[in-house]
Amino acid sequence: MGEQQKTQRVLDDGHPGEARGTVARGAEPMAAYSESESPSADDRLMEEVCERGNLQQALKRVKANKGAPGVDGMTVQALPAYLREHWPTIRASLLNGTYKPQPVRRVEIPKPDGGGVRKLGIPSALDRFIQQAVLQVLQRQWDPTFSESSYGFRPGRSAHQAVAKAQSYIQAGHCWVVDLDLEKFFDRVSHDILMSRVAKRASDRRVLKLIRSFLTAGVLENGLVGATDEGTPQGGPLSPLLSNLLLDDLDRELERRGLRFARYADDCNVYVRSERAGQRVMAGLKAFLTSRLKLKVNDAKSAVARPHTRKFLGFTFLNRAQTKRRIAPKALDRFKDRVRELTQRTRGISIEQLMGRLKRYLTGWRGYFGFCETPSALQRLDEWVRRRVRCVFWKQWGNSPNRFRELTVRGVARDLAAQTVGSPHAAWRLSNSPALKLALTNRYLGSLGLPSLRP
């Protein structure tokens, strides 16, 4: 029996051999339910969570997502073997409502806009697996009830759809945007308010207890475990669904007021026809978020403004008769900063390694920002990237004799090669010279694996 088949068998009905007998002799969870936690005939969510097909799908997803180890150091690769040995006990604790998650491991990553760091909470591999299994059951029930204007972390929905919806509102004449930024949203979610929303949709006490235990598991930071009395840590599979559940209140309030909006996670834009209407909406939403959800609007990052002066999910819009999507200036700056970083750290790595790094980044970036409707911007970026790469070649060629040889071998006339090598200009200036363009053509760079950003 293969390793995958063994794991699937364990997830279905326990560990083969002695463990199976252990479950039958008393660890079988139905015998361990307390009277208060025994599920009703109509509410057996935890049984759905522990259903074989759901668990197999959860394990497959967690393995595909990879991710760093949690506080226990267990890798995702080691998870299947751990489950084969311990699943009967884990399953029993889930079904009798006694499972205890481990604290999350705090990791800080720079925010894309350079405005500080974003704190992630990395659950253990086992907790990620269990969260994923819970997510799959709850998402099937909850997602169909969410607003049509909510696009973040939902099956079949994307940031591109949210941007296109915003574009359609602007094109229809709603030329003012109420750009809401929720201050430290994931860090300040009230557990009590969130759990009250969960309890309205799920009455299985074991599931409610498990979700709250994930929220309050604590955070390991600087070697110490701190309590978590608010917030839903970014990094766990359940966090996006819980954030959508809480912000569904905001969506319903916006719909009740007849407003046009697009929301992606905690990034929400409301589109109105006048600045006065926008100011009125902003004031009303601040009061609603503060009183109803105990959330705060970040005044420094929120505004009522023309859409072309604001960014939404990395895009902004051209202020023309025909509204078009374009890449936001800050997104362009981040792109160039990242490419500079990749092409500056070239000491000790080969051109093949550099091309591999660039290919991974450029392919992903193009897949997202290729959604823009300004092909000239992509063309300029494409030319700029190739200039950066030519600059790398020039530096790696080193001294003048080697540079002369590399140019002539690649078809550059000896006079032009000598003139280029003897130039007093720096590498960046020379990277745009006729000699380097001839020696390192776009076709040649493409043959090395450098993808094009051109439309």
Describe the protein in words.
By secondary structure, the protein is an alpha+beta fold. 53% of the residues lie in helices and 10% in strands. The protein is built from 20 helices and ten strands. The strands form three sheets. A four-stranded mixed beta sheet has the order 2-1-4-5, with no helix packed on it. Strand 4 and strand 5 form a beta hairpin. Helix 13 packs antiparallel against helix 14. The model is unreliable at 15-42 (pLDDT under 50).
Decide which structural class fits the backbone: alpha+beta
> Could you give the order of the helices and strands?
HHHHHEEHHEHHHEEHEEHEEEHHHHHHHH
Low-confidence stretches: 15-42
Q: End-to-end span in angstroms? A: 49 Å
Instruction: Give the percentage of residues in beta strands.
Output: 5-15%
Residue share in helices?
Answer: 40-55%
Radius of gyration: 27 Å
Number of helices: 20
Main sheet makeup: 4 strands, mixed
Shape category:
globular
The main sheet orders its strands as 2-1-4-5
Q: Average pLDDT across residues?
A: 88
Give me the count of strands: 10
